[in-house]
Specification:
Layout (H helix, E strand, L loop, with lengths): L16 H60 L6 H22 L5 H7 L4 H16 L4 H7 L15 H19 L4 H32 L7 H19 L3 H10 L5 H5 L3 H31 L11 H28 L3 H10 L14
């Protein structure tokens, strides 16, 4: 049976503020529900394709990077290269080794990293980076959102700390704590009491629908087995909706099971609708957060832009683009490995290569 459409159908000009808000929220929840369903299906497909299409390319890439690492390691031990060239080789070796150990789990490369790192080796560097990253987890969520710290890479080559912004945030937090320690005014107490009353009334409104459905469809006293099974299935749906505080689904069930009709929806008192609207706003927020979580899962696949993963079509496009880029990278890396077997080619490459300045911040000594 198709889900009943819950809507106030009278002309918009005749609707009061609460009725308009009710329709708007119901429409938004229905749209979000469909969007989430479509996105989840697309994400599941992409995750399956990632295992069969992307992962083999990643493994090829890691294997080729390991070959490149070994090539640079051999070059460093050769007397063919000058001191400045070996400094660059040392940086490249550490950079590639850290990537392969961290991202590909190639623990066997730790001795190579440690050979070139003069700050305690891989474990010490990793511990230092994790310690710095961990410090950010103590910051309030508002600071992370404002300064977009969540996008910092968890590697020693990309972690940067902004002390000025931190001081500003710390001052803001202290000010906030000072405010919370002040005695509340009567106006603040009245607002809190009003919010608590609204929350209780909203809960009561949902419970009223729930009890109506329980009274009509609880299967315990049913003697007919077929009817008992039907009511058991209904009660499962009712209980699930009630536990989620899903007033929209409960209203749909009331309509579907003919506990109420459209005239009941049309004649709901404004105060009653306001209670429903409060719950619907909370439900809308939960769905928006659920959608964001799915997008974070898509971003976790790597190589995707936040803009592209904002909808199912962009998600598929971004994944196809990522696969093509990986294929291109693997192909180019294969050619580079062939060319770099010659010392003269390595020397030419090192001549134009510049060590990024930002890496000096993390204690790598070349």
């Amino acid at each position: 049976m198709a889900a009943k459409i819950v809507r106030i159908t009278k002309a918009k000009a005749e609707q009061n503020k609460a009725q308009k808000e009710f329709n708007r929220l119901v429409q938004k929840i229905e749209t979000l529900g469909k969007t989430i369903s479509d996105y989840r299906a697309a994400l599941t497909d992409i995750q399956q394709r990632a295992a069969t299409e992307l992962e083999p390319l990643r493994q090829q890439y890691f294997a080729q990077r390991a070959q490149l690492l070994n090539r640079f390691d051999r070059a460093f031990d050769s007397s063919f290269y000058k001191k400045n060239e070996k400094k660059k080789l040392a940086y490249l070796i550490q950079d590639i080794a850290f990537e392969l150990i961290s991202a590909a789990g190639m623990e066997e490369l730790k001795p190579i990293f440690d050979k070139y790192n003069q700050e305690g080796g891989y474990d010490a560097v990793k511990e230092n980076v994790e310690g710095m990253n961990k410090s950010f987890s103590t910051f309030e969520e508002g600071f992370e959102e404002e300064f977009d710290l969540g996008n910092q890479e968890k590697t020693p080559h990309s972690f940067q700390e902004d002390t000025t912004e931190y001081r500003e945030f710390a001052g803001h937090r202290q000010s906030k704590e000072n405010r919370t320690q002040r005695p509340k005014t009567q106006k603040q107490l009245d607002r809190e009491a009003k919010r608590e009353l609204e929350a209780r009334n909203s809960t009561k409104a949902v419970r009223t629908i729930y009890l109506d459905l329980v009274k009509a469809f609880h299967p315990d006293r049913e003697t007919d087995e077929a009817e008992k099974d039907r009511k058991t299935e209904i009660m499962q749906r009712v209980t699930e909706a009630y536990e989620k505080n899903d007033v929209l689904t409960l209203l749909r069930l009331q309509l579907e099971l003919e506990r109420i009709d459209q005239s009941h929806i049309e004649s709901l008192a404004e105060a009653h609708l306001n209670y429903y609207n409060k719950i619907l706003r909370e439900q809308t927020k939960e769905l928006e957060e659920q959608y964001e979580q799915l997008q974070f899962q898509a971003l976790a696949l790597g190589g995707q832009s936040a803009y592209l993963v904002s909808n199912p079509f962009g998600l598929e496009y971004a994944f196809n683009q990522q696969v093509n880029e990986f294929k291109k990278t693997v192909k180019n890396l294969k050619k580079d490995l062939k060319d770099l077997q010659y010392d003269e080619v390595v020397k030419t490459f090192l001549k134009s290569y510049i060590i990024p300045d930002q890496n000096d911040e993390f204690g790598f000594v070349y």
